[in-house]
């Protein structure tokens, strides 16, 4: 107990110090932030040659992230940028066109950006392995700040409804539930089809076995003290690669109440198959665009993967409030998390290139169902249930 108190004291002193820096010397604080941002931008900048419109390229790997996150990637030299109608993002490739990057926006806007990319003449992604990456919060039950995750399920929280306070029905223990009327929150809801995407489990297996061999750097001593106070074993570990799933929404959420609500919804919508660990504002929009591309044979959905960094815990440790955790600790593990996830991705890319002919060129066949809730790409969904909206409701009438 004494060590817990001592650790808590150090953490609180650290938090107060961070807050005091911003109050006492905002100019210095802002200058430090600007310097860090400039350094990151400098690492990601390069002189790019614009390809002739319609120039062909058929990459073996495409990596999707936002420009800030690409600032932490130094392994590849992207030399050629491709442009096309309706496309206003950065799609750049290495000199031989083997590896490309797409720097696109967050959440649902990414769907239109990916669609416009797929319409550019000359760009052939039908055999490309597409890796979605970036940063997000981590559920302390499944991972730790500074670590990373490779995921099978992408879950959209955007379709959730919410009641607060006295408006919450008496038989609803959580505030969030499906948009379509349910008799109780534990009943499987009527769906529209974009709530969940399941990726190729066999590809996830392969990438996980490769990625778990990568050595991860640790977080600061401040964050090491913080993680030691969580009650979950996964949270107390040094950074590692988790195998768990992502939940995304355009609304940033944080705290134990929100986290437990998200877990409950994720359990219902995937009938307990998912292990929700990564909170973010990116994945579902990107998956939506890629899935549409798969429907129209522009990509192979069996070659899509998600490997994401954990920049922070999605809920506070026992001694902090959610507000303190969110705004004073914040996303303090962003640097080590991104470096660790990029090193994982580099190892995966190396594996793809090294074993292209014998393993990857023909594709890795999934061993279970892959796709959306409706079997759009073929097969029968193995993580959903038949459902009807509550009788007498707007949807159920």
Automatic annotation (TrEMBL):
One of its GO terms (cellular component) is endoplasmic reticulum. The keyword Signal applies. Keywords: Signal, Transport. Residues 1-24 form the signal peptide. GO terms for biological process: transmembrane transport. Belongs to the NUP family. Nucleoside permease that transports adenosine and guanosine. This is Purine nucleoside permease.
């Amino acid at each position: 107990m004494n060590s817990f108190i001592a650790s808590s004291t150090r953490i609180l002193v650290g938090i107060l110090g961070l807050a005091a820096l911003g109050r006492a010397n905002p100019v210095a604080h802002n200058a430090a932030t600007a310097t860090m941002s400039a350094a990151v931008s400098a690492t990601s900048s390069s002189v790019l040659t614009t390809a002739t419109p319609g120039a062909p390229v058929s990459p073996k790997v495409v990596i999707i992230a936002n420009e800030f996150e690409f600032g932490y990637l130094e392994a590849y030299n992207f030399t050629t940028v491709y442009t096309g109608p309706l496309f206003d993002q950065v799609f750049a490739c290495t000199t031989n066109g083997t590896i490309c990057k797409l720097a696109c926006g967050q959440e649902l806007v990414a769907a239109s950006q990916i669609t416009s990319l797929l319409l550019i003449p000359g760009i052939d992604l039908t055999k490309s392995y597409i890796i979605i990456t970036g940063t997000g919060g981590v559920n302390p039950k499944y991972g730790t700040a500074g670590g990373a995750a490779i995921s099978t399920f992408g879950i959209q929280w955007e379709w959730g409804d919410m009641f607060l306070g006295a408006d919450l029905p008496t038989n609803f223990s959580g505030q969030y539930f499906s948009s379509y009327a349910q008799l109780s929150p534990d009943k499987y809801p009527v769906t529209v089809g974009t709530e969940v995407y399941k990726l190729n489990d066999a590809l996830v297996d392969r990438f996980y076995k490769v990625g778990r061999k990568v050595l991860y750097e640790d977080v600061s001593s401040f964050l090491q003290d913080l993680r030691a106070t969580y009650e979950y074993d996964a949270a107390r570990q040094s950074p590692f690669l988790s195998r768990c799933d992502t939940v995304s929404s355009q609304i940033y959420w944080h705290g134990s109440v929100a986290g437990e609500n998200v877990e409950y919804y994720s359990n219902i919508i995937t009938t307990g198959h998912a292990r929700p660990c990564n909170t973010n504002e990116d994945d579902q929009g990107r998956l939506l665009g890629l899935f549409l591309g798969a429907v129209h044979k522009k990509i192979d959905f069996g070659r899509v993967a998600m490997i994401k960094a954990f920049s922070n815990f999605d809920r506070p440790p026992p001694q902090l409030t959610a507000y303190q955790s969110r705004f004073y600790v914040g996303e303090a593990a962003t640097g080590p998390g991104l470096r660790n996830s990029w090193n994982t991705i580099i190892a995966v890319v190396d594996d793809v290139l090294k074993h292209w002919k014998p393993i990857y060129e023909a594709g890795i066949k999934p061993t279970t169902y892959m796709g959306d809730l409706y079997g759009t790409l073929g097969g029968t969904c193995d993580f959903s249930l038949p459902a009807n909206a509550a009788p007498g409701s707007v949807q159920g009438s």
